[in-house]
Design goal:
This protein is about 40% helix and about 15% strand. The protein has about 290 residues and is an alpha/beta fold. Helix 4 links the parallel strand 4 (about 105-110) and strand 5. Helix 1 crosses helix 8.
Length: about 290
């Protein structure tokens, strides 16, 4: 493990991405990826473009969206990529980005990845932060599904999927992350509701991972260290990786590959369920 002071999110490379042979992975079919300006969202947008889909990246960070497009282009992606500056807490913005995506082809896929974190106990948690976090991570995915489902159902065969970024914190709780945990547990319900209403061709699934080395995670390491009064290295080794059996953080590209697989025809029986890649966090203990 590198010294915590040297931590930074890894740079993406063309070799990072799983490439799938799938009849639906072509530019006439469209995927929306939220949080596409950085981290897991950026990696997922690039992964889906590399796999031939037309990708609409939605994020409030216009500069980051442009960077995602540059990455897709540098990897000679078979699909197209368009970044749309979007405030995911604004229902009208969410509706507008879905409408824009539907104009580019048959909208079939949505990856709800945008997220944030705030470290504080329940007693000290600012309600403004709670509202912002749950608006981005729970309300926005619901609204995105509400807007996207009619378009997916209107395709020639109704085949599509909505994938939600969950977490090990959608399976269990730890202290000082109450809003995040609430949102991730709520996404489990939304995922199952999408599956229940999808008729078998429109699927809902979630992806749960442990700790991923993203810019958000680098910030969280610093926040957790301050909150608990320990070093950043202790946060990584004892708090984040202490319970895991796989002693390394995942990369954004590894998570992006799970979304690519989940959207593919290879995962047609993945419906209402969760892809749990957590290094042993959830089902093992000391």
């Amino acid at each position: 493990m590198a010294d915590a002071t040297d931590l930074s999110a890894p740079e993406l490379s063309a070799d990072d991405f799983l490439r799938l042979d799938d009849p639906y992975f072509e530019p006439t079919n469209v995927a929306i990826v939220t949080g596409a300006a950085s981290g897991i969202g950026q990696a997922t947008a690039v992964a889906l473009a590399v796999n031939g889909l037309t990708v609409i990246g939605a994020d409030i960070d216009a500069e980051g969206l442009a960077e995602t497009g540059d990455l897709a282009e540098s990897f000679d992606a078979d699909g197209e990529y368009y970044g749309v500056e979007t405030d995911l807490t604004d229902d009208e913005d969410v509706a507008a980005v879905v409408a824009a995506a539907a104009e580019e082809g048959q909208l079939r896929y949505v990856a709800n990845i945008a997220g944030m974190q705030h470290i504080a106990s329940i007693a000290e948690f600012p309600m403004a932060k709670y509202d912002l976090l749950t608006d981005i991570m729970l309300r926005s995915p619901f609204k995105m599904a509400q807007e996207a489902i009619p378009h997916i159902e209107a395709t020639n065969d109704g085949v599509g999927a909505i994938g939600n970024m969950s977490s090990v914190h959608g399976h269990y709780a730890t202290k000082d992350k109450s809003a995040y945990i609430t949102a991730k547990h709520g996404l489990t319900g939304l995922t199952r509701a999408i599956a229940a209403e999808g008729g078998g061709t429109l699927r809902g699934f979630s992806v749960s991972v442990g700790y991923v080395l993203t810019p958000l995670m680098v910030n969280q390491i610093e926040d957790t260290a301050e909150e608990r009064g320990i070093s950043k290295q202790e946060v990584i080794e004892n708090v984040m990786l202490g319970q895991a059996r796989t002693k390394e953080m995942m990369t954004p590209a590894e998570v992006a590959n799970l979304f690519a697989f989940g959207f593919s025809s290879h995962a047609k029986h993945l419906n209402g369920a969760d892809l749990l890649f957590d290094g042993g966090y959830t089902h093992t203990y000391e």
